[in-house]
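FAQ

Q: What does a record look like?
A: Structure on top, sequence underneath. For example:
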């Protein structure tokens, strides 16, 4: 039985059994035998808490990773990580997103709106402080409230805005381990060189998450600070930031089976969660969310088909939604293909036998409690997803929802306010509120509300979503619903459209007493959202109580330590350049080349290329980045490292810590990485540094940038 159980663990959980598996936090790095795996430099060169190291070169870029590659604050990250910023800087006349952007001098570098940088300064275990605070919690809801308040309290106390230090506490193991991280924040980030869309997003959504891949997914940014070194918002007086250390570029390339490692900020993984969680994802979250994303994308594409301004506005939204949709559908396929839900339940059945056979009475009801917890979560799942993933797309709904809560929230104590109403976030929230008010597409709004009402009838649980007075609508008649949305919700919303600039001055009672259907609907749905939040708070509190017990139980069985799930904190993962077999009789080699780009370009569409690439391909053997091993210009490559969202832009380093590429994606089979990892199918995709330099050399024309990279 135990042998079978350990086999299941290899499939669905994270441990030290397989060297390439695991997103290792800083605290675990010195416990690893990296030299045995192929690492050629000292651990101090990788991570030194008291000095500079490779860790010092890493940058957290608003949900992505970047790294310093010059002494003048030059940052290398993915094209898709700067996509929104390049789009925001573009106009129909100067479409930098489509045509690319290059600054020929420091003065020509433009603001990367929406991107800021954080550099790790130090970290500290604060688990004892938080766990001691919840000892006497009387309920799961109180437990999670105390945890959140403590995290907020410690983060605020340890932050030092005067010295640009932003502190945050991260939960490493739910309800068990908490680490305080201190970051230096840089607020002025600028675009230096972004390749044309035909390079940075070559293959578009058709190739997204797919191998073989031929995408030049990279962008150069630069960090700026005030002349005194302090972090200031965008200003012409700011100067390039001087990092303590930057990465050295390896020009010699890599070969199959070479050792490599990645440093970065992976987002969320859920490998230490129960089978009920995976079942919730598979049955509710992943299919419902991906279907909604698919629908929204089609609306954006339809509405912008003949409108270049809307195309530019919707481009980053479509890309983000399409990326998420394909990721979720890959996960659904992976869970199904691996029969992962049943495997997780089988693992837990074996664990229950282990509990019984070893008289571990403290775990007797663990899985029953998980089942009860998720039974409630599943009840609200469809309604929650419909509101959060569909209605939140509506500017009218989002603005009205914000306004209806505003007066109530700002009159609370700071610690009691919802996130967006807290003082540190209020300016940003208000700017977003007014932006939504001034950017309303009524045709899109109509479609969103119609779909919301029609979909609400398909909710299978007993959880009530629509207010009683709306239930008189015949939800089976699309015509009736469309007429209701047009005539009753939108055309008669005089309160919203005539007093919109003073909406935030209205009290809760003003919204409650409104006779307008739109205002009444949003107000009632706000109550539903509040109810969902209360249920989710109890759910989160229950998870924080039960997950530590699940981890403890598995540790007893495996007799080993666990690597915490990824949580957007700095991690190390390592492995080798390696191809794989995704299906019977199919083998994917680990490198793609410029010849592959030329071949794919014959398809047209998202495979169209700049004619210069065709000319460069003819003379590639004379190019300094030509690989004799591949007999071509290398483009992308595969490796069996453990990555997930947030690792986008992470530097790929060789055994000597030199830059060989930039992580940007996973193979389709590896979208399942969030829940499980396998040496057979978990492959990540990076763009080769030689292709980055090849494109920069031939497409940027920025001599100062090329000279800077050689320093």
């Amino acid at each position: 039985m135990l042998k079978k159980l350990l086999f299941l663990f290899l499939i669905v959980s994270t441990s030290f059994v397989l060297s390439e598996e695991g997103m290792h936090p800083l605290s675990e790095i010195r416990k690893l035998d990296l030299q045995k795996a192929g690492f050629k430099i000292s651990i101090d060169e990788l991570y030194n808490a008291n000095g500079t190291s490779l860790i010092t070169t890493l940058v957290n870029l608003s949900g992505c990773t970047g790294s310093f590659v010059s002494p003048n604050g030059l940052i290398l990250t993915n094209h898709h990580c700067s996509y929104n910023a390049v789009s925001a800087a573009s106009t129909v006349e100067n479409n930098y997103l489509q045509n690319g952007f290059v600054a020929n001098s420091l003065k020509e570098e433009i603001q990367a709106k929406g991107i800021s940088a954080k550099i790790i300064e130090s970290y500290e275990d604060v688990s004892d402080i938080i766990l001691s605070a919840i000892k006497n919690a009387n309920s799961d809801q109180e437990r999670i409230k105390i945890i959140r308040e403590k995290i907020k309290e410690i983060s605020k106390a340890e932050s030092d805005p005067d010295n640009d230090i932003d502190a945050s506490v991260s939960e490493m193991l739910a309800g068990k381990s908490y680490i305080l991280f201190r970051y230096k924040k840089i607020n002025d980030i600028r675009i230096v060189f972004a390749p044309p869309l035909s390079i940075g997003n070559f293959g578009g959504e058709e190739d997204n998450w797919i191998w073989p891949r031929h995408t030049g997914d990279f962008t150069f940014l630069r960090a700026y600070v005030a002349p005194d070194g302090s972090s200031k918002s965008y200003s012409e007086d700011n100067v390039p930031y001087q990092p303590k250390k930057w990465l050295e570029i390896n020009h010699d390339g890599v070969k199959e089976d070479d050792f490599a490692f990645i440093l970065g900020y992976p987002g969320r993984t859920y490998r230490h969660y129960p089978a009920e969680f995976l079942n919730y994802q598979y049955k509710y979250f992943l299919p419902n969310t991906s279907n909604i994303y698919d629908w929204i994308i089609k609306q954006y594409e339809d509405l912008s088909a003949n409108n270049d301004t809307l195309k530019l506005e919707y481009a980053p939204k479509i890309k983000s939604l399409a990326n998420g949709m394909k990721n979720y559908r890959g996960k659904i396929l992976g869970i199904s293909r691996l029969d992962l839900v049943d495997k997780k339940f089988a693992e837990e059945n074996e664990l229950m036998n282990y509990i019984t056979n070893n008289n571990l009475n403290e775990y007797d009801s663990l899985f029953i409690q998980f089942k009860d917890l998720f039974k409630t979560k599943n009840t609200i799942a469809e309604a929650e997803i419909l509101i959060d993933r569909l209605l939140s797309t509506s500017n009218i709904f989002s603005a009205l929802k914000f306004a209806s809560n505003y007066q109530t929230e700002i009159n609370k104590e700071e610690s009691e306010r919802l996130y967006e109403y807290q003082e540190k976030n209020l300016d940003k929230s208000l700017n977003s509120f007014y932006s939504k008010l001034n950017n309303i597409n009524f045709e899109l709004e109509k479609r969103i509300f119609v779909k919301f009402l029609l979909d609400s009838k398909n909710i299978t649980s007993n959880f009530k979503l629509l207010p009683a007075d709306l239930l008189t609508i015949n939800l089976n008649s699309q015509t009736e619903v469309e007429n209701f949305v047009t005539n009753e919700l939108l055309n008669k919303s005089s309160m919203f459209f005539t007093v919109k600039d003073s909406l935030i001055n209205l009290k809760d009672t003003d919204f409650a007493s409104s006779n307008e259907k739109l205002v009444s609907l949003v107000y009632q749905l706000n109550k539903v959202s509040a109810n969902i939040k209360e249920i989710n708070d109890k759910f989160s509190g229950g998870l924080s109580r039960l997950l530590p017990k699940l981890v403890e139980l598995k540790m007893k069985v495996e007799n080993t330590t666990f690597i915490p799930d990824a949580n957007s904190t700095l991690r190390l993962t390592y492995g080798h350049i390696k191809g794989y077999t995704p299906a019977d009789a199919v083998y994917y080699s680990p490198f793609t080349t410029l010849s592959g780009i030329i071949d794919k370009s014959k398809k047209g569409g998202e495979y169209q290329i700049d004619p210069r690439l065709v000319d460069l391909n003819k003379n590639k053997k004379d190019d300094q980045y030509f690989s004799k091993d591949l007999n071509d210009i290398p483009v992308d490559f595969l490796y069996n490292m453990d990555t997930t969202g947030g690792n986008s832009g992470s530097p790929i380093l060789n055994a000597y810590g030199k830059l060989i590429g930039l992580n940007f994606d996973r193979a389709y089979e590896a979208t399942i990485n969030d829940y499980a990892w396998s040496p057979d199918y978990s492959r990540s995709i990076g763009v080769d540094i030689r292709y980055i330099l090849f494109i920069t050399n031939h497409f940027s024309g920025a001599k100062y940038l090329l000279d800077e990279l050689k320093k």
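Q: Is there anything notable about this one?
A: The chain has 24 helices and 21 strands.
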